[in-house]
Structures are given as structure tokens and as C-alpha cells.
């Protein structure tokens, strides 16, 4: 029971006997316990050094135990200090081991551990870009959430192109619509995919930060990749996913008037703002009920507006609606 505090089995037996009785002589301890006399004497000396036992002033052979909450509490605090020092040593050794592993790999990858270090590396990757930043966003984030993303000043201040594919499940976040509209307004290009294999960010096809798969309860980890050979599959994956994803385009909404998409195709590309939002979310793969929840309107309103869009486009079904919407420049 007290071995965790550094007491030996004999020391624990002697201490517990004294706790039960408050005090005892050396002879009484020898008679009560099945340990040799010299082992009991050594145990008493050790307990005295720990401050757990003292001798009666008027009777040196009588041993008195102090209050456990005080004496054991002090011993526990000392053990905690030792364990903390050991933990710090382990952390230092782990960093030295990672550094050695990084040298062996020629600096091609770096394992980044912890929310703050990952956030710093994320910003460093963005700041290293000269031409373009692209990436995948899954939900929930590993360490850097959408509202923690420092991409805005990087893109706005340096004129970088930024392309992001967002997993459809991210749209379940009540604030995602505002985040997406703000990002589109800053010039970011965004597309929606049904599912993404991983979150990642790539700068200039030269460096990438990819979260490492781990239990959600574990400390977050990410892999910083510097090798073009290791990056090539990630860049190819992004480009293929981007080509297949549903693109979102910014719109200008003024007092509820019908407005065109920013880069609409041929034909009268004008829709009411609510209809434009419904069409966007519908083509991104959301159900009618999910669209209603996202926009804060009733399911009946969404169903009625979709029927209106189908009539307006001359579509017999929703598949035709997507095709006709593209023809008319609505998407």
C-alpha cells in the first residue's frame, strides 16, 4: 500500500502497527511482527529519516507515529517532485531521440507534438508560401480549427492563391456558413467533397503539414513533410479531389434583391439569395432537413423553394436541376 511512497515491506509493517496503536516500544514491535530485530531497527531508522516516526523524549525505546495526513502528505509531495523531474527527463530524452531520427531521415520529416507546436508549424507553413496554399479541412480539427486559422492575413497581405476542399460533415457546424462566406469574400477558393481521407495543408507543393492518426484522447501529433518525393502523392491527391469536388462561388447580396454569382456562366444567372444558398447546399450534398437547419428556415420552405427552382429551370428532377443550374450559370 505504501510502496509507492518508497517504503519497504518491513517499513510499511512497522509503520502500520504504530498507526494502529499510536506508539510502541522496540520490544513490543519485535513481539508483534515476524521480522528480525535488526530489520525492525533498520525500518525504524528509515521511518525516522522520513519524518514518519519519532522517539518519546522521556523514553528513547518508545516510538511515536505522527499524523499521517501531515507526515505522509509531506512524503507524497517529495515523491511528486521526484516523479516530475523524471517526467521532464523523459521529455528531454524523447526530443533528443526525435532529433536523432530527423537527422537519420535527412530532415525529410519532423514529428510535431502538442496543440501549440502544431499551431506554430501551421502558421510557419503558411508564411513559407510564395504562390499558393492548398489543403483539406475535416471535422473536427486536430489542433487548428477554422476560426483559429491564421490564413486570412497571410492570403490578404501577400496575394496568395488559396484553395481548400472542405468535408461535407463540416457543414453541420452552425457557424460554418459564416466562415465560408467570409473566406470566399477574402478571395479564398472553396469546394465541398463528400468525404476526405485526412486534413492537411500544402504550401507551394514544397512543404506539407499532415495530422497523424491517433486516439482523440491522446496528445495531438502532426507530420511536417519537406521531401518532394513524399509530397508528390499528397499534391496529386489534392488536385484529383479538387477537380471532383463541388465548387462554391462568392455572391454579392444586397437587401434581399436577386443577385448573380460572381463568375456565372452564360444566360440570366440571377437567383434570390435564399434560393442561391439552398441550391449551393443542396448540390453540396446536404439533405433538405440539413439545409433547413443550416439556413434557419422550415423544411416546408426548403421543399417549396427547391420546387420553385426546378420549375424555374425546367427540370423534372433534382439531377436535372443540377445540370440546368450549371447551364444557366447558377453554379
Layout of strands and helices, then pairs:
Layout (H helix, E strand, L loop, with lengths): L8 H13 L1 E3 H7 L4 H13 L3 E4 L2 E7 L2 H37 L4 E5 L1 H14 L3 E6 L13 H8 L2 E7 L8 H10 L3 E5 L6 E4 L3 E5 L9 E5 L2 H17 L1 E3 L10 E2 L9 E2 L1 H11 L4 H8 L3 H15 L4 H10 L4
Parallel strand pairs: 5-6, 6-7
Antiparallel strand pairs: 1-3, 2-3, 4-10, 5-8, 7-11, 8-9, 9-10, 12-13
Helix pairs in contact: 1-3, 9-10, 9-11, 10-11
Structure description:
By secondary structure, the chain is an alpha+beta fold. It folds into three domains: 1-104, Winged helix-like DNA-binding domain superfamily/Winged helix DNA-binding domain (Arc Repressor Mutant, subunit A, Orthogonal Bundle); 110-248, 2-Layer Sandwich (Endonuclease, Chain A); 259-327, Winged helix-like DNA-binding domain superfamily/Winged helix DNA-binding domain (Arc Repressor Mutant, subunit A). Helix content is 49%, strand content 18%. The chain contains twelve helices and 13 strands. The strands form three sheets. An eight-stranded mixed β-sheet has the order 4-10-9-8-5-6-7-11, with helices on both faces. A three-stranded antiparallel β-sheet has the order 1-3-2. Helix 9 (273-283) packs across helix 10 and helix 10 crosses helix 11. The chain is elongated. Residues 252-269 have low confidence and may be disordered.
Amino acid at each position: 500500500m505504501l510502496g509507492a511512497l518508497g517504503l519497504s515491506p518491513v517499513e510499511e509493517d512497522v509503520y502500520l502497527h504504530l498507526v494502529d496503536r499510536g506508539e510502541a516500544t522496540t520490544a513490543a514491535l519485535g513481539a508483534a511482527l515476524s521480522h528480525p530485530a535488526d530489520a525492525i531497527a533498520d525500518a525504524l531508522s528509515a521511518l525516522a529519516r522520513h519524518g514518519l516516526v519519532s522517539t518519546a523524549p522521556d523514553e528513547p525505546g518508545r516510538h511515536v507515529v505522527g499524523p499521517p495526513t501531515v507526515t505522509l502528505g509531506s512524503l507524497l509531495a517529495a515523491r511528486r517532485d521526484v516523479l516530475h523531474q523524471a517526467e521532464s527527463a523523459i521529455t528531454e530524452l524523447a526530443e533528443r531521440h526525435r532529433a536523432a531520427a530527423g537527422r537519420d531521415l535527412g530532415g525529410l520529416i519532423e514529428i510535431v507534438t502538442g496543440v501549440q507546436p502544431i499551431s506554430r508549424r501551421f502558421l510557419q507553413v503558411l508564411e513559407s508560401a510564395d504562390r499558393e496554399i492548398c489543403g483539406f479541412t475535416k471535422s473536427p480539427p486536430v489542433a487548428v480549427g477554422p476560426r483559429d486559422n491564421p490564413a486570412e492575413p497571410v492570403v490578404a497581405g501577400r496575394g496568395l492563391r488559396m484553395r481548400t476542399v472542405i468535408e461535407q460533415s463540416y457543414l453541420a457546424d452552425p457557424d460554418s456558413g459564416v466562415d465560408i462566406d467570409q473566406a470566399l469574400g477574402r478571395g479564398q477558393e472553396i469546394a465541398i467533397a463528400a468525404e476526405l481521407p485526412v486534413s492537411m495543408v500544402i504550401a507551394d507543393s514544397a512543404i506539407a503539414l499532415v495530422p497523424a492518426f491517433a486516439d482523440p484522447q491522446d496528445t495531438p501529433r502532426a507530420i511536417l513533410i519537406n521531401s518532394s518525393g513524399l509530397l508528390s502523392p499528397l499534391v496529386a491527391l489534392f488536385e484529383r479531389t479538387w477537380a471532383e469536388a463541388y465548387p462554391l462561388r462568392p455572391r454579392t447580396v444586397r437587401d434581399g434583391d436577386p443577385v448573380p454569382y460572381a463568375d456565372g456562366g452564360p444566360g440570366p444567372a440571377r437567383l434570390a439569395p435564399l434560393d442561391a444558398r439552398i441550391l449551393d447546399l443542396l448540390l453540396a450534398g446536404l439533405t433538405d432537413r440539413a439545409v433547413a437547419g443550416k439556413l434557419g428556415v422550415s423544411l416546408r420552405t426548403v421543399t417549396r423553394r427547391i420546387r420553385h427552382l426546378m420549375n424555374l429551370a425546367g427540370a423534372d428532377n433534382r439531377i436535372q436541376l443540377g445540370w440546368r443550374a450549371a447551364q444557366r450559370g447558377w453554379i
